[in-house]
Amino acid sequence: MAESTASASTPPRAWALAGLGAVVLVVAALLAAYARVHPGDGAALTTLGFSGMLQMKAWLATAALVFAVVQVLSALAMWGKLPGVDSSAAWVPGVHRWSGTVAFLLTLPVMFHCVWSLGFSDSSGRTLVHSVAGCLLYGVFAAKMLALRVSGLPRAVVPVLGAALVALVVLAWFTSALWFFGQADVVKI
Fold first, then answer.
1. What are the structural domain ranges in the chain?
2. What are 71-94's pLDDT values in tens digits?
3. What are the start-end ranges of the H helices in the chain?
């Protein structure tokens, strides 16, 4: 009897996983397509008080990266993998949720200016990797948020999507903000 139950539940699980994969690809493709057909003129719509658009993007992306590290640490704590932190502590899920919210909000002006003002770029390997990573980042984010609400998924789906999300934040940061900070004449805030 258990065998028939397991085989009956496999197709919905497979469809749910396929659906999450489709969400990643559709969101990423839509962002890339829009950024490609609307390359922008490089003008900033706002700098949020920074000296320029690139400075704003680099510093906000760096702040988002810091919150992504908090995300990793709080996720490890929730899963009982962070030594010295009680995984049942009531504050851990709140820290995880709020650090993720702040990280996401910090990336919105960055992404908006990437897509609207700069467009999708394949002019160099660095910009191509950055453009693809940025688009995938929002696809993975959408899939992770959906996966939190879908029942019956394998236990590893959310942590794998979370790890992919952090990896994409790091990759996008390395191919943009770190590169930007390496330019001697543009580091001012």
1. 16-181
2. 999 999 999 999 988 888 899 999
3. 2-37, 53-78, 91-113, 125-147, 157-174, 177-181
